TrEMBL record, chains A, B:
PANTHER family, A to Z: HTH-TYPE TRANSCRIPTIONAL REGULATOR RUTR, MYCOFACTOCIN BIOSYNTHESIS TRANSCRIPTIONAL REGULATOR MFTR-RELATED
Domain HTH tetR-type, residue spans: 17-77
Protein name: TetR family transcriptional regulator
GO molecular function: DNA-binding transcription factor activity; transcription cis-regulatory region binding
Annotated PROSITE patterns: HTH_TETR_2
Keywords of the record: DNA-binding, Transcription, Transcription regulation
Gene3D superfamilies: Homeodomain-like, Tetracycline Repressor, domain 2
InterPro entries: Homeodomain-like_sf (IPR009057), HTH-type_TetR-like_transc_reg (IPR050109), HTH_TetR (IPR001647), MftR_C (IPR041347)
DNA-binding region residue numbers: 40-59
Length: 209, 209
DNA sequence: ACAGAATATGCCGGATCGGCAATATTGCTG
DNA sequence: CAGCAATATTGCCGATCCGGCATATTCTGT
């Protein structure tokens, strides 16, 4: 062993992660400011200082690169749930895990500061079919991991019980509905309260309003 | 006026619909029996007796063609809900509408007879990322229409209330979870009871089992 | 330090994708 | 019923995507 490195995992893995993030970020930025069709894989690769071929080692296309950020964030919900105290009721732990990922800011996954021009760019970008598909897929993938974490925590069997998959799907739906709601509103709306409301309605069995 | 035609809509529209169905069906059949990568757009177009260019007027790619069948079926849930008697409680009408689309047979959307070889082909096909994305997108699109139908029926405002989108998402989740469950099981499992169970759990607020 | 493994890159051929213009089919109207 | 307008089908083409292969470069564990 040469010596204790900083972050966990080797230098190799960290660099890989940084490249992945740089590519995803570049893809989002370019797509938002130039429009979806006007940005090629070559542009993204150049913006992250890697070859086009390397980009394609990380992502299968523009869409996957853009969706990666959303995917990573959704994944973190499952990670967060795993490290919660085990005696906490499931739903409570789940709500905390979800809110932890959307607490500070960022209405979708691109802009740190809710600049109206950029938000509008995101709206336009989200009309692209290829991107919608990839985002929906990312959502589904993350839900599968969340379902596994829920099954693990509750001692249910994902192969026999619908329960873990259903709870994961419910949580995912709450996030999706809340994000779309806030994104559709013209006045910038904080995500947190909307998300909490959605989760609460689901837990109450969706009573008619 | 020339005369009352048979089905609603002109001959033109019906022919279009038949072409669309033929293409989607051909795409599914070829992909299941040959494997995803081994079928080109040209093959599909040839199987439906249209030019490649025409195929691309209907669908943006193989994935969309295959997903079209699922999309159409999910759309019919919303259509069914609209023609239900208005005095029926929403959830009851919704459950009926969903079950009506999955009542007779077909575990996913390809095979009329649950041939084990074909079911396995479907399983393999569903591992394809591009197809997963398109299916997820179809799911999301259908949910939007369902949400509109629910809002219409309950008098809620999709722009202000989370309710319609949440209920639509819950119904969609139940369908998705039930389908995946039945597809994962090695013994052929009828979808109906599983679907009913999933919907019931959601309505009960997902109690821990 | 060295052997082995994983990654980055260039190159290439097949397939995809969408715009354009010509042609054919359908629906309407006089 | 005959012509006209609208829409669908088709072929063509260049840009792009996509993944396999071979090679060079960079990290890891002993």
């Amino acid at each position: 062993m040469v010596g204790g490195h900083a972050g966990r995992g080797g230098l190799r893995e960290r660099k890989k992660q940084r490249t992945r993030e740089a590519l995803s970020l570049a893809a989002i930025r370019l797509a938002v400011e130039r429009g979806w069709a006007a940005v090629t894989v070559e542009d993204i690769a150049a913006a992250a200082d890697v070859s086009v071929r390397t980009f394609r080692n990380y992502f299968s296309g523009k869409a996957e690169a853009v969706a990666a950020r959303h995917l990573d964030r959704m994944r973190r919900i499952a990670d967060e749930l795993r490290v919660r105290p085990g005696d906490e009721p499931l739903w409570e732990a789940l709500v905390s895990s979800v809110e932890a990922q959307f607490a500070p800011d960022e209405d979708l996954d691109a802009v740190p500061a809710p600049d109206p021009a950029q938000v509008d760019g995101v709206r336009v970008m989200l009309t692209e079919p290829a991107l919608q598909g990839e985002l929906a897929r990312a959502h589904a993938l993350a839900q599968d991991e969340l379902a596994a974490a829920i099954a693990e925590r509750t001692g249910t069997d994902p192969a026999r019980d619908l329960y873990p998959a259903l709870v994961a799907a419910a949580a995912g739906s709450a996030v999706a509905v809340a994000i779309e709601h806030c994104l559709r509103a013209e006045a910038p709306t904080p995500l947190g309260p909307v998300l909490r409301d959605a989760l609460e309605q689901l837990r109450a069995g969706l009573p008619v309003p």
